[in-house]
Amino acid sequence: MPIIEVKNLSKSYEYYRQESGLMGAVKSFFARETLYAEAVKGINFSIEEGELVGFLGPNGAGKTTTLKMLSGILYPTSGDARVLGFKPTDRKKEYQRQFALVMGQKNQLVADLPAMESFILNKEIYEVSDNDFKKTLNELVDVLDIGNILDIQTRKLSLGQRMKCELAAALIHSPKVLFLDEPTIGLDVVAQKNIRDFLKRYNKEKKTTIILTSHYMEDIKDLCRRVIIINLGKVIYDGAIDELIKKHAPYKLLKITFDENGIRRDQVEKYGEVLEFSSYRAVIKVARGDAKKVAIALLSSPLPVDDILIDEVDIDDVIRKVFGK
Ligand SMILES: Nc1ncnc2c1ncn2[C@@H]1O[C@H](COP(=O)(O)OP(=O)(O)OP(=O)(O)O)[C@@H](O)[C@H]1O
Ligand SMILES: [Mg+2]
Q: Which CATH number fits domain 4-245: 3.20.20.60, 3.40.50.2300, 3.40.50.300, 3.50.50.60?
């Protein structure tokens, strides 16, 4: 049975337009015009135990709204969501104990408390036994390397340090399902990689089912084999990331370096579309099936080739292309 099952899930937000100025405010107070924003429009997917699925889409696509519905924070307008067999909006204690939601945009730790205090708070809320708490905490502190910052007020931590503590706090009760909404947002590349490495390892060891949203393609490429892409509240792709690339990027990149003799642009133009060029380096785009053939042709040509790398096109571009449809 799938761990997460979403059927025809929809959410429209009700909001009010307010006219500008004081008179506008007064007027709107008495006669407000109700407007609806259809954020999620009948989406379907199911996720099996232990999967780490990337949930992608441009700003405003409906990702956060969906994760909030799966966490029981928001009521769907229609449709059905089940996680671990529970209906999230029932807000059953048994469900609360088995999932966690981490939002990179929002502090969940109390700013004036050191992280350790929040961990203890969560231990109490989720009724984690002393033994389990000690064991889980030790593991998390070790893998996330946060031993030396546990006693510092969270508002004094760097963004990366804070995010590590947020993750640890969310995992104190060893949830079976984890919703991560942009956990690496705003972090530098090193901190991003730390979080990624942690998530990869955690998912592998604990078999935790994870849905991850991120606008950083490195995160997605590195962590997810499957992606669900939504745009304007609808699922437009659900499948393997490799298939997505194959389907929407029927070409590969040859990244060629030349020795100190260098070359001219016209010498590589006949091999494919030149995307980047300098005398010592060229990037050319060739049909997926021709990549090897062209590489061999280059190596056996009189050109002073030093090295050739056959690479996938940037997944960022592929996804943008999919959004464009
Ligand atoms: N409280 C709200 N009231 C009215 N409309 C809302 C509310 N929250 C979100 N929306 C609208 O719902 C749509 C989906 O928003 P959502 O936050 O789910 O997008 P997202 O995919 O998470 O985007 P991002 O990548 O920017 O985080 C947007 O058009 C947004 O303006
Ligand atoms: Mg969002």
A: 3.40.50.300
